Amino acid sequence: MPEKSHPATLRLSTFLPFRLSVLSNAISQRIAELYDREFGLSIWQWRVMAVTADTPGISATEIGQRTQMDKVAVSRAVAGLIEMGYLERRPSTDDARRSNLVLTRAGIGIYELIVPLALSEEARLVSALSEREQAELARLMGKLAKAASPERDLW
Amino acid sequence: MPEKSHPATLRLSTFLPFRLSVLSNAISQRIAELYDREFGLSIWQWRVMAVTADTPGISATEIGQRTQMDKVAVSRAVAGLIEMGYLERRPSTDDARRSNLVLTRAGIGIYELIVPLALSEEARLVSALSEREQAELARLMGKLAKAASPERDLW
DNA sequence: AGAAATTAGTTACATATGAAACTATCTCTT
DNA sequence: AAGAGATAGTTTCATATGTAACTAATTTCT
Question: Is the CB of B22 under 7 A from strand C?
Fold first, then answer.
C-alpha cells in the first residue's frame, strides 16, 4: 500500500525570498529614516543623488539603469530634488530630449553630510560579521543575483 | 601642509542596503508574478495563506507578527482571501474581538498547488549555491538580521 | 463593581507607486 | 528629405500602502 502523500508544506521563516525581503526591509527602513528625518529625502531621491554625485552630468535614463528605478520613479525623484534645490538640469547640447543632471552646491553639501552617516550605519551593521564573512556574503549575493536575473546585471 | 580631505564618496553598487534591496526585489518580483499570474494572489495574501496553512486558527495579530506585516495589511489581505473564498473567519469563543482564521477547502487546494511551484523556484535559485554556501548564507543573514533588528526577531 | 487603559481589528484619508498614454526629439529607411 | 519607428522624459489615472482615527471587546486598577 503506497504511503499517503503528505501535503506540501512551506515554512515562511525558512523560505529564502521571505527572509531576504524581511531582512532587506528592516535594513532599508532603518537607513531611509536617516535620510528622511534629517534631510527630508526619500530613498529614491537619495539613490539619484548618490549616482549623480558619482557621475555628474548623468541622464535620467542612465540613473534608472544604475539604480534599478523605473523612469517614472526617476522623473519624480529628480523633480523633487530640483525643487529642493539640490539638483540642476542642464540641457544636453547634442540631444535635446535628455538633460545632464548635476548636483548643486547645496546638493553636494548635503550629500557629503549624508555619506558618512550612511557608511557608518552600514559599518555598524556589517560589523556583526568578520571581514571574511562580509566578503563571503558579497560573493554569495552576487551568485544569487546572477541566478535571479541572468539577463541583466543587477548592480 | 595637511592633505586635502577627499570628499566622502559612496558607490551605490557596493553599498549593502542597496544591494540587498535590489536583490530582494528581483527575487520577490519573480515569485510574486507566479502567485499573481496563476492565482490572482498578492504577495501579502500569499504570506497570510502560508502561515494560516501552517497554523490553522491563527489570529490576525499573530499573522502580523509571523509575517512582519502591519495590522492594516493583514486586515486587507484577509478580507481579500475571504472574498476569494480561500479563507474563513471563525469567531473566537474566548475573545470576541479576535477571529480564528482557517483556510477553506478551496484555500487548501490552491495552497497545495502553489507550494511546489514556490519551492521549485526557490530551489532553482539557490541551486546556484552549494549546500555549504546555502547554509552559510542563511547563517550570515541571521547575524545581519540580529544586528539590524536586535529588539525583535525578524523570523 | 466600574472607570481607565489596552488590545483586536476595521475604516478613512492622504500619499506613494506603476502602467499606460502622451509630447518632443532623434534615428533609420528609402 | 520625409515618413516610420524608436527613445527621453513627463503626465495622467487607477491602485496600493501607511498613518491615524475609530469601534468593540477585554483587562487592569482602585
Answer: no
Are B141 and A20 in contact by the 8 Å Cβ rule? The answer is: yes
Q: How would you write the pLDDT of chain B (155 residues) with one tens digit per residue?
A: 655 555 678 999 999 999 999 999 999 999 999 999 999 999 999 999 999 999 999 999 999 999 999 999 999 999 999 999 999 999 999 999 999 999 999 999 999 999 999 999 999 999 999 999 999 999 999 999 999 988 878 88
| A9 backbone φψ class: left, alpha, beta (φ>0; ψ -120 to 50) | beta
**C-alpha span between B35 and A80 (Å, rounded):** 34
Question: Which of B108, B128, B143 is nearest residue A146 as measured by Cβ atoms?
Answer: B128
Nearest-by-CA chain B residue for A32: B17
Domain assignment present for residue B61? The answer is: yes
Evaluate if pTM is beyond 0.85: yes
The CATH number linked to B119 is 1.10.10.10
Question: Based on the structure, what is the number of domains in chain B?
Answer: 1
Within a domain: residue B53?
A: yes
Domain with A57 in it: 26-148
